[in-house]
Amino acid sequence: MARYLGNELQLIHLFVHLVNVGGFSQVAKELGMPIATVSRKITKLEESLDTQLIMRSTRKLRLTEEGSRLFARYQNAVAYFDSCGDTGLEKPEGTLRIAAPVSIISMIFMEVINAFSKTYPDIQLHITQNNSSIDLIDEGVDVAIVGGAQPDSSWVSKSLGVLDYGLFASPAYLAARSALTHPSQLPQHSLIKVWPLFNWSMQHIDGERFYYEGPAKLTLGDIHGAVKACVDDGGILYGPALFMKQELNQGLLLPVLPEWQGEQRRISLLYHQRSQQPLKVKLFIEFMQQRATGLFDRH
Length: 299
Prior knowledge:
Blueprint: H1 5-21, H2 24-31, H3 35-49, E1 54-55, E2 62-63, H4 65-84, E3 94-100, H5 104-119, E4 123-129, E5 143-147, E6 155-169, H6 171-176, E7 191-194, E8 200-204, E9 209-212, E10 218-220, H7 223-231, E11 236-240, H8 245-249, E12 254-256, E13 260-261, E14 264-272, H9 279-291
């Protein structure tokens, strides 16, 4: 492939940028050229190299083995070339697209989001809140806030904190029911399930494990509603203690079977691997990581 470097440098530069941003429409917008032109130039590069670099059978950008090798060979060189032309005048501006579950922004991150917005007034934040899985590339997402394991290795994950799950109920609900001494008694109670953990996994401090996948009196996709129902004597809720911090401090909710520990769910930032991140993305990632330490303190 090296013999084509002199003739195809511009095409290789375009190819590396295409991989960095994750799609034809994105690189066309970034470089200010029609999508058809981008596609034609990539095809020309493939013809010159006599090899297929990109799989075009899906909407996603999928590299062939040869495409991955070409990107790995030239990504640092292209990044260095681009940095030589950097005037240092890049401004923190534009639209930053963020994806997150329905409740997690308002329950944990809203104050930090507001602080970021005030610090960088020329960056507009577009936040998509959805409990369903979305295609981050197809949706044009810059950064996602996610929970649990992330199987897609093409995205970089940075931990923000951990949510500790447990059982909670209102004092009035507990006073009106027989004492609960073991999770096996849960089917005798009104239970509240909330996304994403509809089945409950618990472990006693002595090591005994219990798993509940039975029915619930109320099942929701929004933790706000689940906490309200729990405070209103609706039953026992399995959820993250952090999301009930205020209610626990005020005595509106009490831990149930506190010697039984629920699951731990890691919350992370997810973003696309690029040799050069847009300034708005870099600033947001740094801002969130710097302020994440105190956000998961439930006391």
